[in-house]
Write a structure and sequence with these properties.
CATH superfamily of the largest domain: 3-Deoxy-D-manno-octulosonic-acid transferase, N-terminal domain
Shape: globular
Strand content: 5-15%
Radius of gyration: 22 Å
CATH topology of the largest domain: Rossmann fold
Helix content: 25-40%
Number of domains: 2
Largest sheet: 7 strands, parallel
Distance between the termini: 31 Å
CATH class of the largest domain: Alpha Beta
Strand order of the largest sheet: 3-2-1-4-5-6-7
Low-confidence stretches: 1-26
Order of helices and strands: HHEHHEHEEEEHEHHEHEHEEHEHHEHHH
CATH architecture of the largest domain: 3-Layer(aba) Sandwich
Length: 377
Amino acid sequence: MIRRLLQRPALTFAGMVRRALGKRVSEEKPRILIDCIEFFHFLHVGPLVDRLIEEGRVTVYLLKNPTLGEADILRIRRPGLRLVSPMKVKFLSFDVTISLDFSQLVSIPSKGTWAFLPHGDGMKAHYTGSAELGKYDTVFALTRSQARLQRSFINHGAQVVELGLMIGDRLTGEPVSEDQRRQLQRKLGLKPELPVVLYAPSWSIDDHHVIMNHMLLQSLMEQDEFNVILKPHPNLLIPERCGGRDWVSVFRAMQRDNFVAITDRSSPVYEFMPHADVLLSDISSVVFEFLFLDKPIVLHLRKDVLREIGGEAYLHEILPSIALAEKNEEVLQKLREEIRSPHTRSGARRRLLEERFFNVGHATERTTEWIYSVTGA
């Protein structure tokens, strides 16, 4: 009996275990595994997870990577999402595994179709072009430029699937009301009568590429023309990832009635984007994601950093849609101009959004269709 079972190539060891427990494999729904190492990366696949759970045609699992803290798990947890430990995942097989980071996953005996989903696309080109892409059966592309670069790294027989930005579907949903904006500002201790600048500085493993600096922070804190919500990249809040620099203490010392820093790593920037009148950022992929809101963007850049990360083409692409400030002292004036004339670059922003991203407003639907086509659900 055991010999006959082992001779069936379609029945894995995990399948034998399930059969021994009295479960019929044929009656099980296709299994989808989500693999990510950061909560803010999960947000890029969250719309898909919610839709798959709601429609109930597949079973969705999340790998509890050790890098996900308890606060992260609490925010990710939802009815219908099954959490699986690195130990237990060894005894399960999956129809589709979606990784949002360059993960090894060597301990999973059957990943099914293994897909890579980038957690953004911006001026840091390593999001997109890497030899690591050669490990995957499928690579998802958010944008046209990303797809072109990915195709030069995938293996023969692998595919690039043009999906789009799923978090963008939520950004283009129902806009926040003026009452909701004022409620958030009061909750944060800000002045409800002032416009809101969302400052979202990026992080880099190379500290030289962190463009945020004390002089700029000081000027943003000392002005009294608008509210500033500082939402730093989550890794800027961890001294060990910033060469030992304790930015959190700096941010907390700057709080006032029109300047607030969000120092909770589990609070995503997407919660604040719909409430902002203007985005101030640098080499972050948030710059391109903010296009979904058709609101002004001020880019604070250093050309040496842009050159070192290979981001010149990205700047050339977005330049007609944004206001550029290369020096600290230029930032406030650019913000004033964009607040006064928010629609000046609207046409350029909307054109770039449609030209750059796949399936604007329908990326989650497109990804769901792909899942069902691959699994037969």
